Amino acid sequence: MKIRYFVTPALLLVSLWLAAEASAVQPNEARPNIVVILTDDQGFGDLGIQGNPVLETPNIDALARAGASMKNFYVSPVCAPTRASVMTGRYNFRTRVVDTFKGRAMKEPAEVTLPELLRAAGYATGIFGKWHLGDNYPFRPTDQGFDEALVIRGGGLAQPSDPIENNRRYTNPIVFRNNQQEQAKGFCTDVFFDGALDFIGQAQQAGRPFFVYLTPNAPHVPLHDVPPALLAKYKAKDLSSVLVKGGQDADTVARVYAMEENIDQNVGRLMARLKSDPALANTLVIVFFDNGPDGDRFVGGLRGHKGQIYEGGIRTPFFAYWPSRFKPGTAHAEIAAHIDLMPTLLEAAGVAAPAGLKFDGRSILPLLENRATSWPERSLVFQYHRGEQPIEWHNAAVRTQRWKLDHFTGREALPEEAPFQLFDLEADPGERHDLAASQPAVVAQLRQTYQQWFADVSSTRPDNYAPPRIIIGSDRETTTMLTRQDLREPEGANKGHASIGVWLLRAVRDAGYSMELRWPEPVAAGTLELHIGATTRTVEISAATDRVSVDSVQIPEGDFSFSAIVRRANGVDGAYHVKLVRQSLSRGP
Length: 589
Fold this sequence. Notes:
By secondary structure, the chain is an alpha+beta fold. The protein has eleven helices and 25 strands.
């Protein structure tokens, strides 16, 4: 593996700024290596050190004891919004990421990212696992600051963005290395950690500090393909102490725990590598989770799960290991969140942010290093629901150091009535005793805080929630794979490969394309309609098939919507995957 270099216009501007501000940057030898481990759907109680009486995670537990931790660290209720905030230091509503699919998880390309700034400062940057902020140009990890990208598409394996031929595999999965599809060997989490370890060696050989963003898709569902030996281990255990009435059953929990112990084993491999080489002693390692568990199980006494704004849905362990800077066993109760990670890591690396870049977060490095003599009061806001754009107070919460105001409405349609609930989290971390009726002044103040926040994040851009467009025809990506991950479906539509919707595209030049349409199962004979803006092209399908090829499709420069629909006697089938291959140029750059 060779570390690659790309220079985009945004990165060029960042590089020029850093050159002008060189005095703000530490010399290479003083900069720490950085490893961020962000797992997928691992819950607050899914570690031994978090009080789990069944799950065995000795390596992460040891890392936690040897470093510093934040006891009240928060993320978004679901994954893509969390990842947008991690990459930008800003609330996800500023980045155009409002949901996890249907074209609502593509981050605005103009947002300045953590890897862009670190790479411009001399770091080798690599991502290994789940990106979930856009699969096509200009949203891919390699377009957004990463030298090396070993990733899966969309929200994860076995989801609609996954290549059909992967057949939902977690073991020996199809992955994408620097945008090229390849067949991996081994369980997915092992594959990603292997890639990260190889990358660390390459960065060392190149004499560059490294930023490794390690983001396994485990323990996200589906759960059919998990490490067999670990599954047998947990199926043989008594899991009654971690089961919740009406929640996940023993088989489900055993499968989740098998993947989580596998994660822990890989963290052990990583830490052994870092500790065995004196040249890697100056390495900062951070571990946290992207949201709560996908269902009810042991969460250390908290309430709720993924998709909810209760503590179990948005609170995560946060452990930071840096032996030369952090005192073992240090724990801080100040509230912090995903928006704090980017300013924290930039401070740790000695890299100042460009002038004018507005963070919603703040560096928590003074806390982790025990040098903060005071810490200003702050409010954090969390919100998420399914939909084209946010709706005020739909599934939202406001958190201060003591209080939390919840307006839980679920992730789907906004109910007509939902109560405001107020909890004193210093006395009631499980959110069991609603104090809204007895503390009206606190409720009023937090509602005002939310209103100001919502107005602010919603006015980041004039077209704040307009979806960004996939760019086709560029030399940076001559083959574009469109999947249901980015298909803009009508509200309420979620019917797998039968879904009807449009992709929002931008052609940078007039060009001819070939197209291949794919479905997981054959569609019946009928008429294929290709809607390209105001133009429609039809192709007759004479027999049931799972793929159709169309050549010589001319697409003019400009913005347009695209859809592909098979109309048959008894219904319609929307496209599942569409591969566009640029064949010829009519004009343009």
